[in-house]
């Protein structure tokens, strides 16, 4: 190889190194997903979302209508529309489902039998709703730090999730405000399901 060719090769390598070190440009934009978050009043929806957004839990007030939070993660931003869980609000939930790409359902694993049954009915309704039935679901069994909390296996059996949600993309995880690492891991798995659904749509 001639001296000129060698010099050109070294110059090109220097150029590539310079581009890699100094000209990276802005990082690629994180994908954004629009989610709906539902669950009965007292299940802890607002507290969990506020903690994920690094907001102080001391000023948390239960959502009476709906609120929207942008929850940032390293590989995605989740625009979460939280709907109030009071009796007089739940009948209007379906009006806010349109445009959702995934569902977060929060339940109080330490609640009374009556509230747990109401939560089961609402989850069954959401899983079968035509605007939600094909979407990924993250089901959070909250308040696992309470003595009366039911285990994930008890929740799965009581809610009849295996037969009802067969063939759907869903995750059931225990959580509490005391274990943010586990909560973030639950959301990371949800993001994986959302990405898989995106890839499936592209292949189609």
TrEMBL record:
<keyword id="KW-0342">GTP-binding</keyword>
<keyword id="KW-0547">Nucleotide-binding</keyword>
<dbReference type="GO" id="GO:0046872">
    <property type="term" value="F:metal ion binding"/>
</dbReference>
<feature type="binding site">
    <location>
        <begin position="142"/>
        <end position="145"/>
    </location>
    <ligand>
        <name>GTP</name>
    </ligand>
</feature>
<dbReference type="InterPro" id="IPR006689">
    <property type="entry name" value="Small_GTPase_ARF/SAR"/>
</dbReference>
<dbReference type="GO" id="GO:0005525">
    <property type="term" value="F:GTP binding"/>
</dbReference>
<dbReference type="InterPro" id="IPR027417">
    <property type="entry name" value="P-loop_NTPase"/>
</dbReference>
<feature type="binding site">
    <location>
        <position position="63"/>
    </location>
    <ligand>
        <name>Mg(2+)</name>
    </ligand>
</feature>
<comment type="similarity">
    <text>Belongs to the small GTPase superfamily. Arf family.</text>
</comment>
<feature type="binding site">
    <location>
        <begin position="39"/>
        <end position="46"/>
    </location>
    <ligand>
        <name>GTP</name>
    </ligand>
</feature>
<protein>
    <recommendedName>
        <fullName>ADP-ribosylation factor-like protein 15</fullName>
    </recommendedName>
</protein>
<dbReference type="Pfam" id="PF00025">
    <property type="entry name" value="Arf"/>
</dbReference>
<keyword id="KW-0479">Metal-binding</keyword>
<keyword id="KW-0460">Magnesium</keyword>
<feature type="binding site">
    <location>
        <position position="46"/>
    </location>
    <ligand>
        <name>Mg(2+)</name>
    </ligand>
</feature>
<feature type="binding site">
    <location>
        <position position="85"/>
    </location>
    <ligand>
        <name>GTP</name>
    </ligand>
</feature>
<dbReference type="InterPro" id="IPR042292">
    <property type="entry name" value="ARL15"/>
</dbReference>
<dbReference type="GO" id="GO:0003924">
    <property type="term" value="F:GTPase activity"/>
</dbReference>
């Amino acid at each position: 190889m001639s001296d000129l060719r060698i010099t050109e090769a070294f110059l090109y390598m220097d150029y590539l190194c310079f581009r890699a070190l100094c000209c990276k440009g802005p990082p690629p934009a994180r994908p954004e997903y629009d989610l709906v978050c539902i669950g009965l009043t007292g299940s802890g929806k607002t507290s969990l979302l506020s903690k994920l957004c690094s907001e102080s839990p001391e000023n948390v007030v239960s959502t009476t209508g709906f609120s929207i939070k942008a929850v940032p993660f390293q590989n995605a931003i989740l625009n979460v529309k939280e709907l109030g869980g009071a009796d007089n609000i739940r009948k209007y939930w379906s009006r806010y489902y349109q445009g959702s790409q995934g569902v977060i359902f929060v339940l109080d694993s330490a609640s009374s039998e009556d509230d747990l049954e109401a939560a089961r009915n609402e989850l069954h309704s959401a899983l079968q709703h035509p605007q939600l039935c094909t979407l990924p679901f993250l089901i959070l069994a909250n308040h696992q730090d309470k003595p009366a909390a039911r285990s994930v296996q008890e929740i799965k059996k009581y809610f009849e999730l295996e037969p009802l949600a067969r063939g759907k993309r869903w995750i059931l995880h225990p959580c509490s405000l005391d274990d943010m690492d586990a909560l973030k891991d639950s959301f990371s798995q949800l993001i994986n399901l959302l990405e898989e659904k995106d890839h499936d749509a592209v292949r189609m």
